[in-house]
Design brief:
single chain, alpha/beta, Rossmann fold, 2 domains, 8 helices, SDR, 3-OHbutyrate_DH, SDR_fam
Length: 264
């Protein structure tokens, strides 16, 4: 039987047309939450995602293509969500991009884009969602950080800076809502085989002249002791827990799900 623990709630998940975001959107929909998808992709593929969510879980799913680097588009998306569902009860800030280069070679436009999409967008969605959450005295804000929100890696200065920023922003949001029914936490995944990570696998395979499988093993062996990728479904289950009553006093946590990466 489908659980209805989030029945009637509305969840907005940024960067949710694939990968981690889609996994979390599906997990929340399974618990009865209506879904606002956000992200890029072919219109027919996105429409198919909406139809699948509605058919599989009996909820309403809409899509908004806001560019998460543009505050005006973010505000428009939040307004559409409110008009459709009355409020954004659950906000999952997941949108992210990556670029790899040494600091002295890092393109300024790439730095600005990563900070805007991976960090500043969460500020804009949160500032717009909080007033209604506080008024209802219930809300869940889940920021998808990364193991790189807790430790660094060479050649990822912008990404690591943004993800550390997300963890700090999570803590401040949690403190400002500590005496309300609104909670804010961060999930810090290790390697997840998303399209973003697949690009890094492909690049590694090409650069080293090895197979894709060998490139995956190499990537995992450097950081993730379990030797296995974290899955979007596992992250979705954690997001559902953070939305539950059992997590009412989980506030400001940076919860790593990383196959042992941070334990080293």
């Amino acid at each position: 039987m489908q659980s209805t623990s989030l029945q009637g709630k509305a969840a907005l998940v940024t960067g949710s047309t694939s990968g981690i975001g889609l996994g979390i959107a599906r997990a929340l929909a399974q618990q009865g939450a209506h879904i606002v998808l956000n992200g890029f992709g072919a219109a027919d593929e996105i429409k198919a995602l909406q139809i699948a969510l509605q058919k599989d879980f009996g909820i309403t799913a809409i899509h908004h293509a806001a560019d998460m680097s543009r505050p005006a588009e973010i505000a428009a998306m939040m307004q559409v969500a409110v008009e459709k569902f009355g409020a954004v009860d659950i906000l999952v800030n997941n949108a992210g991009i990556q670029h790899v280069a040494n600091i002295e070679d890092f393109p300024i436009d790439k730095w600005d884009a990563i900070i805007a999409i991976n960090l500043s967008s969460a500020f804009h969605t949160t500032r717009l969602a909080l007033p209604a959450m506080k008024e209802k005295n219930w809300g869940r804000i889940i920021n998808i950080a990364s193991a790189h929100g807790l430790v660094g890696s060479a050649q990822k200065s912008a990404y690591v800076a943004a993800k550390h920023g997300i963890v700090g922003f999570t803590k401040v949001t949690a403190l400002e809502t500590a005496q309300t029914g609104v909670t804010c936490n961060a999930i810090c995944p290790g390697w997840v085989l998303t399209p973003l990570v697949q690009k890094q696998v492909d690049a590694r395979a090409a650069n080293e002249g090895i197979s894709n499988d060998e490139a995956k093993k190499g990537l995992l062996s450097e950081k993730q002791p379990s030797g296995e990728f974290v899955t979007p479904e596992q992250l979705g289950a954690l997001a559902v827990f953070l939305c539950s009553e059992a997590a009412n006093q989980v506030r400001g946590a940076a919860w790593n799900m990383d196959g042992g990466w941070i334990a080293q």
